[in-house]
Specification:
alpha/beta; 3 helices; four-stranded mixed β-sheet; globular; Tauto_MSAD; Tautomerase/MIF_sf; Tautomerase family protein
């Protein structure tokens, strides 16, 4: 699951394209299937979003939650791909984008009535 935060006046106009760019990176780097997009977009009021100095109002936070198992190199490739694609396709400077990957063990994920370690029919690989 991916959660994207930003100031609503900046995030709302690009949210569909941003979701497309992020999912495209997930597909190319992690080989995620097309139908595995799970994005939550959280447009915030300016007064509800504090961010570091040196950033513009376009500052956007992308939190990627995934089951543990991807190699550090794979995760770094994903982060770099998102930075590159967001800048080239949406014009968002990498200074205004923050990406975090939060990993949880498969037994800590619940979907379709089971935990992630019980799922044996995933259409993608976790250990890449």
């Amino acid at each position: 699951m991916i959660i994207i935060y930003g100031i609503k006046e900046k995030l709302n106009p690009i949210k569909a394209r941003l979701s497309d760019v992020i999912h495209s990176c997930m597909q190319s780097v992690l080989d995620m299937p097309e139908d595995k997009r799970a994005h939550r977009i959280v447009p915030l009021e300016r007064e509800d979003f504090y961010y570091p100095g040196g950033r513009s109002d376009a500052y956007t936070v992308i939190e990627i939650n995934m089951m543990a198992g991807r190699k550090p190199e794979t995760q770094k490739d994903l982060i770099k791909a998102i930075f590159s694609e967001v800048e080239s396709k949406l014009g968002l400077s990498s200074v205004d984008v923050e990406i975090t990957i939060k990993e949880q063990q498969p037994y800590q994920w619940g979907f379709r009535g089971m935990t992630g370690d019980e799922a044996n029919d995933l259409k993608y690989k976790v250990n890449v």
